[in-house]
Amino acid sequence: MSPSAVKNQSQDVNLTAAAVERKEVAAEQTPILAQLDASKMTYTYTKNPREVPDEAVANAGTETIATDHMVLANWSATRGWSAPELKPYGPLSLMPTASCLHYATECFEGLKVFRGYDGGLRCTEAGASNFFVLWKRKDGKKELITAPLDDKLILDGVTRRSAVELARERLAGEVEITERKYTIDELVEADAEGRILESFAAGTAYFICPVSQIHHRGKDINIPMGPEGKAGEITTKIKSWIGDIMYGNVSHEWGVVVNEKAQQ
């Protein structure tokens, strides 16, 4: 081996060692980001509390009624989360140069509170939506399928999780619950073979919503619906189960009751 080759190998080793050392130093200097900690929340209550709207107004469907308060928490890449603050509901201040106005990177999360049959308040989740399909597999077995969470591309929604867990618990022996990757081609094939039974989307905005049609590349996949164009049997069951828990119609460990505090 030539002296130059030995020299180059020595340089490579030194460069690699230096790179590892720099990486270790950088790791040591990486700040520990603060986690979101509800125990550090500060409270500033409104001095002008509004009356609770009557049932007709609350259920009008416009979804424009907000609570008297909102919770704000700031996050930064160097510090993590600030202490959350509960304060009177009001406008948010936003700089014109905010990236969400230019590159669509914003994320809005809303927390819903439902007043149950007993008058108590119950918290639910926030997020976008998840897609479910109920079909017959080629072996004749009924299967409720939704995409998995392993690749971090699918929303780990609370409504999704609730639907999956309740279906596994209460539909055992009737329907197999599957979380796996599946394709639009599988849906097209199942539609052509008459194997699609129901479909629904789950999310905080519209809860459990039946899906009647999927349009793909100029063709429609028409999904069977229940009587009078309403949700199918399994979709209706899952929606009813979650709704009963949300509104306190049944006692369940997921039904967290919020004690109302009188405003001074």
From TrEMBL:
<dbReference type="GO" id="GO:0009099">
    <property type="term" value="P:L-valine biosynthetic process"/>
</dbReference>
<dbReference type="InterPro" id="IPR036038">
    <property type="entry name" value="Aminotransferase-like"/>
</dbReference>
<keyword id="KW-0808">Transferase</keyword>
<keyword id="KW-0028">Amino-acid biosynthesis</keyword>
<dbReference type="InterPro" id="IPR005786">
    <property type="entry name" value="B_amino_transII"/>
</dbReference>
<dbReference type="InterPro" id="IPR018300">
    <property type="entry name" value="Aminotrans_IV_CS"/>
</dbReference>
<keyword id="KW-0032">Aminotransferase</keyword>
<dbReference type="InterPro" id="IPR043131">
    <property type="entry name" value="BCAT-like_N"/>
</dbReference>
<comment type="similarity">
    <text>Belongs to the class-IV pyridoxal-phosphate-dependent aminotransferase family.</text>
</comment>
<dbReference type="Pfam" id="PF01063">
    <property type="entry name" value="Aminotran_4"/>
</dbReference>
<dbReference type="InterPro" id="IPR043132">
    <property type="entry name" value="BCAT-like_C"/>
</dbReference>
<keyword id="KW-0100">Branched-chain amino acid biosynthesis</keyword>
<dbReference type="InterPro" id="IPR001544">
    <property type="entry name" value="Aminotrans_IV"/>
</dbReference>
<dbReference type="GO" id="GO:0009098">
    <property type="term" value="P:L-leucine biosynthetic process"/>
</dbReference>
<dbReference type="GO" id="GO:0004084">
    <property type="term" value="F:branched-chain-amino-acid transaminase activity"/>
</dbReference>
<keyword id="KW-0663">Pyridoxal phosphate</keyword>
<dbReference type="GO" id="GO:0005739">
    <property type="term" value="C:mitochondrion"/>
</dbReference>
<protein>
    <recommendedName>
        <fullName>Branched-chain-amino-acid aminotransferase</fullName>
        <ecNumber>2.6.1.42</ecNumber>
    </recommendedName>
</protein>
